């Protein structure tokens, strides 16, 4: 009896290990590309010579342009932390879009509660094939897990070698293995949002502190009314770092909570589907 179930467990273990082999290309390349793009936006868009009354013709990595013509252009004078903050904002937007598409696909078509109710109805009438057809229509993570469980469910109906308790355990194990394939896909890359939610604010404050140091250094060197004017202007420019950092952090926190709530709903549906299958089998095939 034990020999019959062992090969099935081995095959399932190999299947469960497959997703771990694939590389996460988006997670590898997106942060690097976004940081580089952040610098390009800061240096060549915000830092375009035409945006300043006194541009620095020498150019280089960090041109010393003066006299920004617009409010947005003043962000350029916030310092070298600004492109990193812009890169963080782009990273957040990239993974927000990526997670939106992934979780939308995982949620499937239609209402999860209604889908489970239809499956329960078909199982109550012992129409397993119709229940599987409902999973094909759902096309989401709950449908995938339910379909795996239903295939094992159908197999156990005709199995004469195991008792009812062993059959239920076999269905439950199949559901657990299918769930282990789905959940990592749902939670993947959320770490970027949770990390940037904390780091972006600190980077913004760091950029502001650097700007304040530069401003007060000028005040100490020059003195007089002109220095006071430059000090107030420098503080204003430095605060762009704080604003950009807090804004990026706020977006990351909000979207992280939105995604975790959606994932919790899908996870609940997966748990409910597993409970439905095991209870249905135990009740109808004693």
Give the helix proportion (percent range). Answer: over 70%
Q: Give the assembly state of these chains.
A: single chain
Mean pLDDT: 86
Order of helices and strands: HHEEHHHHHHH
Beta strands, count: 2
Domains counted in the coordinates: how many? 1
- Give the overall shape, derived from the CA principal axes: rod-shaped
Instruction: Find the structural class using helix and strand composition.
Output: mainly alpha
β-strand percent reads under 5%
- Estimated radius of gyration: 29 Å
User: Major beta sheet, specifics?
Assistant: 2 strands, antiparallel
- Given as residue ranges, the uncertain stretches (5+ residues, pLDDT < 50) are 1-23
Our count of helices gives 9
Distance between the termini: 19 Å
Please state how the strands of the largest beta sheet are arranged side by side: 1-2
């Amino acid at each position: 009896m034990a020999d019959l179930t062992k090969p099935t467990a081995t095959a399932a273990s190999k299947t469960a290990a497959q997703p771990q082999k694939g590389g996460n290309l988006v997670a590898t390349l997106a942060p690097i590309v976004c940081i580089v793009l952040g610098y390009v936006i800061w240096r060549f868009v915000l830092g375009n010579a035409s945006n300043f009354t006194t541009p620095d013709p020498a150019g280089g990595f960090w041109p010393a342009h003066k006299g920004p013509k617009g409010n947005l252009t003043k962000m350029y004078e916030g310092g070298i932390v600004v492109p990193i903050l812009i890169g963080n904002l782009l990273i957040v937007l990239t993974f927000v879009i990526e997670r939106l598409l992934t979780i939308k696909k995982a949620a499937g078509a239609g209402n999860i509660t209604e889908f489970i109710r239809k499956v329960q109805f078909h199982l109550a009438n012992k129409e397993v094939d119709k229940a599987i057809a409902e999973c094909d229509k759902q096309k989401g993570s709950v449908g995938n897990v339910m379909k795996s469980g239903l295939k094992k469910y159908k197999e156990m109906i005709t199995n004469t070698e195991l008792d009812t308790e062993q059959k239920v355990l076999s269905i439950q194990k199949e559901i657990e293995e299918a769930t282990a394939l789905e959940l990592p896909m749902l939670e993947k890359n959320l770490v970027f949002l949770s990390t940037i939610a904390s780091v972006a604010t600190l980077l913004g404050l760091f950029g502001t502190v650097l700007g304040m140091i530069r401003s007060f250094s000028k005040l100490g060197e020059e003195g007089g009314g002109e220095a006071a004017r430059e000090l107030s202007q420098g503080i204003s420019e430095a605060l762009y770092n704080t604003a950009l950092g807090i804004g990026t952090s706020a977006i990351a926190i909000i979207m992280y909570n939105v995604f975790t709530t959606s994932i919790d709903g899908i996870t609940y549906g997966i748990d409910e589907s597993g409970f439905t299958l095991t209870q249905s089998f135990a009740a109808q095939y004693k």
